[in-house]
């Protein structure tokens, strides 16, 4: 087993330290067909303090999740089942911070062909609802605010809290709310990606959830309308700024503001290959669908006067 551990260490070093593609390919080639090694890698173990659940081969498991098309499917499925049955395993982040890096759970959602059970879908959504900005998070913060009120903690009292490296006097309630938000942001409940393309994006992008389910999720995942609007816009800009759109030039010829009007044939002529065209087309359709499920605020403001005018005319 010590030999297996050395292989796992070598894989980690090749991915995150050495970063030489040839070395990584060689190690991956020696791993993917070694069933005994893979079975060892996915076996549950504890950290050196005996407190947190881990797997034997942290780097090997991560590699299986990323390179899902080239790994033993049975072992891969065992790993997936472990991830969806153990929150500590689901939240493992090998590269990056534990409160926002790419977790094991997030990586399972990168596989569009992975079939999830209803329980597994519920598990993923439950983890996603821990993200700052969801309706669950906002409700929890509102409840905490009420608890402070009931305890008589108000901003009429003063506490000293560290903001931006300096200690400042603030209202007691504001200080408590700030610290609660800070602790939440540092927790491993915030694993599964960060920013606009965190686990919420990948769940909405995943075919395991129906359109009806996504209709509810898109409202629960972002409690603030303006933040959702900004998130959707970043998804659109992410597509518009894709390197495939530059074609060796300094400026992109992909127009973000016309993207919903592009036909598949137009895109195919522009990119010249079906694989890129299919990828871009699917992302455009996804953004369009999300826009239909939750209209942006400027669209609602634009529609309201027209609806009122029609009512008056009748």
Describe this entry's structure for a reader.
Helix 1 runs antiparallel to helix 2 (21-32) and helix 13 (225-240) packs antiparallel against helix 15. This protein starts with a helix and ends with a helix. The protein has helices at 2-18, 21-32, 35-41, 58-66, 73-83, 87-90, 104-108, 118-128, 135-150, 172-186, 199-205, 211-220, 225-240, 264-271, 274-293, 297-313, and strands spanning 44-46, 53-55, 158-163, 166-171. Helices cover 59% and strands 6% of the residues. It is globular, with a radius of gyration of 24 Å. The chain is built from 16 helices and four strands. By secondary structure, the protein is mainly α.
List keywords for this structure.
314 residues; mainly alpha; two-stranded antiparallel sheet; two-stranded antiparallel ribbon; 16 helices; 4 strands; 59% helix; disordered C terminus
Short description:
The chain is mainly alpha-helical and 314 residues long. It has helices at 2-18, 21-32, 35-41, 58-66, 73-83, 87-90, 104-108, 118-128, 135-150, 172-186, 199-205, 211-220, 225-240, 264-271, 274-293, 297-313; strands spanning 44-46, 53-55, 158-163, 166-171. The protein is built from 16 helices and four strands.
């Amino acid at each position: 087993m010590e030999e297996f551990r050395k292989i796992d260490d070598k894989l980690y070093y090749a991915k995150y330290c050495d970063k030489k593609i040839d070395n990584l390919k060689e190690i991956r080639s020696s791993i993917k067909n070694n069933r005994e090694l893979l079975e060892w890698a996915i076996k549950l173990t504890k950290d050196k303090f005996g407190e947190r659940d881990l797997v034997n081969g942290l780097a090997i498991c991560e590699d299986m999740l990323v390179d899902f098309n080239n790994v033993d499917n049975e072992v891969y499925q065992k790993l997936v089942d472990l991830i969806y049955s153990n929150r500590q395993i689901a939240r493992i982040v090998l590269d990056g911070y534990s409160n926002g890096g790419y977790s094991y759970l997030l990586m399972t959602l990168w596989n569009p062909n992975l079939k999830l059970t209803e329980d597994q879908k519920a598990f993923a959504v439950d983890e996603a609802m821990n993200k700052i900005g969801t309706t669950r998070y906002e409700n929890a913060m509102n409840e905490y605010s009420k608890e402070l009120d009931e305890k008589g903690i108000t901003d009429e009292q003063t506490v000293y809290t560290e903001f931006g490296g300096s200690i400042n006097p603030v209202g007691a309630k504001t200080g408590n709310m700030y610290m609660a938000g800070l602790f939440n942001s540092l927790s491993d409940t915030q694993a599964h990606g960060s920013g606009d393309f965190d686990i919420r994006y990948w769940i909405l992008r995943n075919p395991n959830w129906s359109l009806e389910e996504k209709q509810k999720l898109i409202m629960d995942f972002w409690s603030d309308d303006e933040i959702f609007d900004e998130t959707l816009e970043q998804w659109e800009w992410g597509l518009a700024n894709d390197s495939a759109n530059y074609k060796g030039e300094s400026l992109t010829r992909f127009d973000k503001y016309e993207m919903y009007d592009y036909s598949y044939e137009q895109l195919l002529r522009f990119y010249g290959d079906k694989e890129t065209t299919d990828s871009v087309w699917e992302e455009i359709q996804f953004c369009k669908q999300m826009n239909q499920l939750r209209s942006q605020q400027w669209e609602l403001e634009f529609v309201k006067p027209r609806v009122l005018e029609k009512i008056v005319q009748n």
